[in-house]
Amino acid sequence: MKKRTSVWFVSLAALLVFGFSPSVPAADYPVKPVQLIVPYSPGGSLDRTARIIAKHAEKYLGQKVVVVNRTGASGSVGFTAIAQAKPEGYVLGMGATPLIQHHLLLEGVTYTYKSFTPVVMCSYDNNTFTVKAGSPIDKPWKEFLAYMKAHPNEIPIGLGGHWSSLDLARAAFELATGTSFRRVQFKGGAKAVASVLGGHTMATTAYQDEIYDHVKLGKLRILTFMSEKRMANFPDVPTMKELGYDVVMGVWRGVIAPNGLPDDVKKKVIEAFDKTIKDPALKADFEKGKVPYVYKNAEEFGKIRAQGHEKITKIVQTIKARSK
Q1: What is the pLDDT of residue 245?
Q2: Of the candidates 248, 282, 310, which is a domain's last residue?
Q3: Cβ–Cβ < 8 Å for 193, 199
Q4: Which of the two residues, 45 and 4, has the higher pLDDT score?
Q5: Are residues 148 and 102 in the same domain?
Q6: Distance of alpha carbon 80 from its chain centroid, rounded?
Q7: pTM for this prediction
Q8: Does one domain contain both 116 and 51?
Q9: CA-based angle 31:56:296, to the nearest 5?
Q10: In what order do the strands lie in the sheet with 116-126?
Q11: Residue closest to 117 by CA, chosen among 264, 324, 302
Q12: DSSP designation for 207
């Protein structure tokens, strides 16, 4: 009996040393830090949004929230990691519009928007069409169009990844205006904007929070917003609709989780991040960072994703039909 007891204690010690940990009841969630995966590079709009959320979510979760950038393959590496994470609540992610379109445009992508549980939506930002100040395409609208049509496939445009939301906005812009650019892909919107500032490309379809300071400093100029109405921060910039084109493109951003979370964990996650996004201190940080604030609860967020999928599917079908 004594020998068996000794063996039992040795075995237990070995299990503890080599990584065994008893399962923690979901009711105790969370008992360790939570990862928040961002599928794009540091410095971009989704990354900056995530870091603001992580900072304020710790108050409501009672645990540290660690932002982890899992980049590659136009964001699909990160989104795949979120979709395939163990549904325990310790790996969450930042979702954005591109996860809707990836299975339609990228080979090998197996997830759809239905592969993720919506937690809360925090932002919506419309695409711009922005050019480098003083470049050959920094012209009044009609002159810009004439120049572009005289130089098809020549003008380099900086985009945040192959078939990212910036790239899809570029495609919608080209289809509407009859123009065509030379696509230059980068890992995220921040690097695409940097390419325009550095003169490596001449234009981008980046969001206003990524270009705001550069526009105010006169380094970039927004020719138009792909929005329903003019933006408060740039009231003098016309929309595509005002220019005669029915082009409205943008990106929603929000917290998502892998499907299959236990009900009590799911409830705690949704409650914590819902409170986070409603926190006045977070709203103030969004305003400082020029992140457009739009709150939608989990149910509303789910409906927006479904509506977006329907719209984007039609755009992709048009793109593919015209490319044949």
Answers
A1: 97
A2: 248
A3: no
A4: 45
A5: no
A6: 14
A7: 0.86
A8: yes
A9: 105
A10: 65-69, 34-38, 91-96, 250-258, 116-126, 293-296
A11: 302
A12: B
